[in-house]
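SH3 domain protein
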Amino acid sequence: MNVLQKSLMLIALIASLSVFAEKTAYVTDNLSTAVRSGATNEYRILFYVPAGSAITVLDDEPENGFIKVRDNKGREGWTLNRFITETKGARIQLEETRQELSAALLTIENLKQQHAKEIAKLQEQLATANVIVKKSATFQNEISELQTQNATLEQQNKRMADRFQQEVFFAGAIVVAAGCLIGVIIGRVSRKKQSGWS
């Protein structure tokens, strides 16, 4: 194997190693898991990861059944692959469900308060509308009464105008009759005087 082939193999190996990205996994719910300083049971235990805890898998290629992990405190070590799963444990799922339920209850409470405010606002608007309707009915009654009074006054004015015209007619007739009577009287008096002079 020449140098070029060795270089190509080394580049391919590095590329394959760099392709792996860290991923989140979980310790099984059954028991706490020991994290060791190396990839066998011969290495000392560095710390324990509680059952159901989230960890970061740093190398998913098992070595002697061990994989390299990091806990949420930033500590690294090796632990048995069979105690690690990609599925969240029941404890984490329960806690997430509790948080979601708490958020949902808070949202419901906020919606209830908002709903109560909207109802109070609508009731206030309804009360205002009722007052306006009552005032409108009162105004309508007043308008109706005024219209009745106006019609009555118009009739009275018409009667008075008719009576005034009649009175003017009679007064004119009386004046004419009086004028005629005075004319007749004056005519007779004039004739008597003329006959008396002759």
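thats it. The chain has a mean pLDDT of 81. The first helix runs from residue 3 to 19. bye
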